[in-house]
Amino acid sequence: MNKKGEGEQFNWIFVIIAGGIILGFFIMFTFKYIELQEKRQDVDTVRFFGGKVISASSKLQVGSGGAAVDSNEQEGLRFGYFVDLGYKCAGNESTLLINKGRTAWYKLDDEVVFMDDEIRVNALDLWILPWNFPFYVTNFIYLSDPRTNFYFVKDQSTKEFVDNLDISSAFKVEKVDQNILSIKQNSKVVYFLNKVPLRETIIKLKGNLTSANFVYINMQKKEAQFFEDGKWSEAVKFYISDDNNGHLLGAIFSNNADNFNCNVNRALDRTKTIANIYSRRADLLGQLDRRSECHYNEISRSLSKYASGELLLVDVIKNQNLAGAGCIWVF
Amino acid sequence: MGILKTTGIIRHARKGQLQIQETILVIFIFIVLIMFGLIFFYKAQSTSIANDFKKFELDRVSVDFITLGDMPEFSCSKAGIRESCIDTSKLVVFSELINNKLYKNYYFDRWGYKNITIYTVYPGKNNIKCTTASADNCGVWDVYINKPSKITSKIIRDTPVSLYFPDKDQYAIGIMVVEAYNV
Amino acid sequence: MFKKKSQIEMIGLVIVVIILAVGLLLYVRFAVFREETNTQDSSIELAYLTNLMSSIFNVKVCESSPIKFDEGIGVCFQDGQICGENACDYLKGQTKDILGKLNLKKYKNYSIWVTRGNENKTILAECKTGILTHTTIVMPDKSHYTAYFRVC
Q1: Average pLDDT for residues C114-124, to the nearest whole number?
Q2: Are residue A155 and residue A255 in the same domain, yes or no?
Q3: Cα–Cα distance for residue pair B73/C75, rounded to 1 Å
């Protein structure tokens, strides 16, 4: 009789264990299935975003003012779900990461993308601007969370420059003086001042805000610094010409010194490669078109120096590329 | 009679137990089958997703090559404004520049093992290979030649391209052929 | 009798399991291994078509007074003449000549037409459906036209 009772107990234990295992399996499968669907969504995201948006944007022929896509417009960039977008640039390689790149990522070739290193969005504001330095190199692509408010902080010496700085209307920009600056969540503050703001000022301004980024731009030295990990980063040098401030705008849209520096270098490496081609092209044109008034040799020499790193020749080369008396345009 | 009745009851009870055990076994096997099915399903879906991504990357390479003419290394420009054509003088310069080791490595990182050749087809064909010396009268450009010694498979794609001759201010139509090799 | 009953039950069980297995296999075949619609191929097709259109539209026609094909499209819209002929008819002939020399195996029929506002002019009409691309033509007098190019 006692054994019968013990037998029944064992039976129940067996039932509980077996049932637990089976239930556990089905619960585990549910979570795995959710993970699976997220992976599939990542691949769809990279196919749409990387393949269609970024790739197409980099090849698009746009005017000097660029082309912007506001997420609120009918043709706006909307995913329909939240996605963790990341941007990583190191060495000469840059990659767009979808959900930390677990399943899908988009390796960039010529495309130069300026954006925060990590954002969680369900839509994006996009601006494409051709970078001519002085010849066309690539399209710069600026991406931003539509919720971001940009604050350009100016002082007396930079007031004129900041007021005339053209940013696409797709982005929410306020140009303010330092003493009346007040920020909220999802802010990007860009300082155009003579001196870099104190660390304590930024910490106080940031307060408890979790999503606020700070950039300092020194227009005299053409350098940018980013407030990361509670302090200002090292200054990153950038290059602008009279009519092209692509790098400057890139600093506004970035929040990471390493990524920004890497992007600047990638763009400049491409520029030097293309300058070399134009230099040799100018030599070839000199052989095909022997008119002395065309000065192909002169521009070829300038381009050759430019290709070896003398980037300050940008305006000189631009002025030399004036096809006169029926000469062929070098670029 | 009492003994027979008891025996009958015992037999029915055993029969019932047997039935229950049978049912339990059936359900257990059924569940095991479902579990195997779900595991197989998960593995199949994971593989399908990974293949989707690989296919996307492959298609991307195809699109990049069809739009090769848009690269600033090749595209026409006048007064800094790009046009939808390939500048033949840039093709000549590029095909000579690519012999430089630095540029060869740079473009190998981008393009890998491929042959990219352009042939003029309109208004007429010209089989002369283009170099700096023959730039004014030629019709074949070996833009990028990097064929490996051992090939497992290859893909060939071609696309029409607009060719511009800056010295003559003339346009022609060519076919760009890309052979991609797998090692 | 009991033996037959249990045998019948076993057969029933086997049938149920077989039906379930077949059902599962069909699901796997149609839900897991379904053929995805090939969205990337259309990008390649469109890029190819855009290249073809640019190639044709850049060509200069009429040796006596050369004019670019795309500018000729604008002249066609304005009912002008090229090489002493009606511009639209002239361009139609040139298109056929160019495509004949290109000898592309991929497509056999083409359509080209131009629009401006609500008006349109057809140069070649061989396709009602197919892949379509377009471009904006800016004439020397700064007027704009939209030229469409379709293949099938």
Answers
A1: 92
A2: yes
A3: 33
Tell if the CB–CB gap between A47 and C39 is shorter than 8 Å.
Answer: yes
Tens digit of each residue's pLDDT (9 = 90 or more) over A72-110: 888 788 888 999 999 999 987 899 999 998 888 998 888
Structural domain contains residue A240: yes
**Rounded Cα gap, residues B137 and A132, in angstroms:** 32
From its phi and psi, is residue C84 left (phi > 0), alpha (psi between -120 and 50) or beta? left
A3 falls within a domain: no
Mark whether A185 and A257 lie in a shared domain. Answer: yes
Q: Note whether A26 and B42 are within 8 A (CB).
A: no
- A195 and A282 share a domain? no
| Residues A155 and A252 placed together within one structural domain of the fold | yes
- Tokens describing residue A160: 């004129």
What is the rounded distance in angstroms from the CA atom of residue B69 to the CA atom of residue B85?
7
Domain boundary among A246, A265, A284: A265
Nearest to C93 by CA among C59, C144, C136: C59
The set of chains that have 3 or more CB pairs under 8 A with B is A, C
Q: Which contacts of B99-106 are long-range, i.e. CB under 8 A and separated by 24 or more positions?
A: B103/A273, B104/B146, B106/A273
Q: Which domain holds residue A277?
A: 273-320
pLDDT of C54 strictly over 90: yes
Residue to mutate among C43, C50, C136, with most A CBs inside 10 A, is C43
Would you state the pLDDT for residue A220? 92
Judged by a CB distance cut-off of 8 A, whether residue A96 touches chain B is: no
A98 assigned to some structural domain: no
Per-residue confidence at A202, pLDDT binned at 50, 70, 90? Answer: very high
User: Are residue A260 and residue A280 in the same domain, yes or no?
Assistant: no
Q: Pick the closest to residue C112 from C145, C87, C73, C149 (CA basis).
A: C149
How far is residue A305 from each of residues A275, A302, A311, C87, C99, measured CA to CA in Å? Answer: 9, 5, 8, 49, 45
A256 and A300 housed in the same domain = no
pTM for the full predicted model:
0.86
On whether any CB of chain B is under 8 Å from the CB of C20, the answer is yes
Q: How confident is the model at residue B75 (pLDDT cuts 50, 70, 90)?
A: very high
Sketch the domain layout of chain B as residue ranges: 1-66, 73-182
Domain tally, chain A? 2
Cβ-based contacts of C20 with chain B (< 8 Å): 30, 33
Residues of B in contact with A50 (CB under 8 A): 60
Three-class SS state of B128: coil
- Tokens 């003339």 identify what position? B170
3-state secondary structure of C134: strand
pLDDT tens-place string over residues A298-330: 999 999 999 999 998 988 998 888 766 678 899
Q: Residue C38's pLDDT is what?
A: 53
Predicted local distance difference test score (pLDDT) of residue C32: 66
| Section A238-266 average pLDDT | 92
Residue A245 resides in a domain: yes
Residues 134-153 of B with CB under 8 A from C: none
Token duo for residue C19? 């039906």
